């Protein structure tokens, strides 16, 4: 079973190596030992969240703001778990919890597709897939931390990895009114907070403001569309 899953997921594993190594380098820049990097990467798998923790810490952002920011971008995992749970209705509660608690974005996408397609795939396969990807991510980050300790990587260069990651995430989104409004309002919120001397809350505030304005905008236009249809 493990070999079958590895054959399915090996391209994602290579991607984890390419992204995890720079993440581990940045984590090492914060003063974390390799074993600490492995422990965090194996228990808190939220890719972009780990980049955010390191970069905000290096920027001197207070811990409460870091926690709020990472919690906001990691809340998506609750939606992943909720959407995959109905497809595991024949599994025990323990199996469902194990799958939901170890999901990553890529594992979620693969497992959900196979469960919907009705392939020979169940909670055991989903859990093993999750463990394989988590182990790959943890080892990749750890190797990055080890290499970073030997090779001096400038913080400015390493920190840009997070910025470039979020730029890629931004441009990979579907071009829609809500996404554009969220991106623009979030950027304006960050600039306003910086201008007002509220840099400590700039990131979490921009997340809340961007989402709130995008939802309000969609609600207004959807309401107008419904009225016009009448």
UniProtKB/TrEMBL annotation:
Query: What InterPro entries does the annotation carry?
Result: Brnchd-chn_aa_trnsp_permease
Q: Name one GO cellular component term.
A: plasma membrane
Q: What is the protein name stated in its UniProt record?
A: Branched-chain amino acid ABC transporter permease
Tell me where it mainly resides.
membrane
Query: What top-level branch of life does the organism fall under?
Result: Bacteria
Protein family: Belongs to the AzlC family.
One biological process GO term for this chain?
L-valine transmembrane transport
The subcellular location is: Cell membrane
Transmembrane feature ranges:
12-28, 127-147, 153-171, 203-221
What is the topology of this protein in the membrane according to its UniProt annotation? Multi-pass membrane protein
Keyword set for this entry? Cell membrane, Membrane, Transmembrane, Transmembrane helix, Transport
Q: Name one Pfam family in it.
A: AzlC
């Amino acid at each position: 079973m493990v070999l079958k899953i590895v054959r399915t997921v090996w391209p994602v594993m290579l991607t984890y190596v390419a992204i995890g190594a720079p993440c581990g380098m940045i984590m090492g820049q914060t003063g974390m030992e390799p074993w600490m990097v492995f422990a965090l990467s194996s228990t808190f798998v939220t890719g972009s969240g780990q980049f955010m923790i390191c970069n905000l810490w290096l920027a001197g952002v207070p811990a409460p703001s870091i926690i709020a920011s990472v919690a906001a971008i990691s809340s998506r995992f609750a939606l992943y778990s909720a959407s995959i749970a109905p497809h595991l209705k024949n599994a025990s509660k323990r199996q469902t919890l194990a799958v939901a608690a170890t999901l990553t974005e890529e594992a979620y996408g693969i497992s959900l597709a196979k469960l919907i397609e009705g392939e020979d795939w169940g909670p055991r396969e989903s859990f093993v897939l999750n463990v394989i990807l988590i182990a790959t991510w943890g080892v990749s980050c750890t190797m990055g931390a080890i290499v970073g300790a030997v090779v001096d990587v400038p913080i400015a260069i390493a920190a840009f990895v997070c910025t470039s990651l979020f730029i890629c995430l931004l441009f990979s989104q579907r071009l829609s009114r809500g996404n554009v409004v969220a991106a623009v309002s979030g950027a304006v919120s960050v600039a306003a907070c910086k201008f007002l001397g509220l840099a400590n809350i700039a990131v979490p505030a921009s997340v809340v403001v961007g989402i709130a304005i995008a939802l309000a905008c969609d609600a207004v236009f959807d309401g107008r569309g419904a009225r016009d249809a009448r």
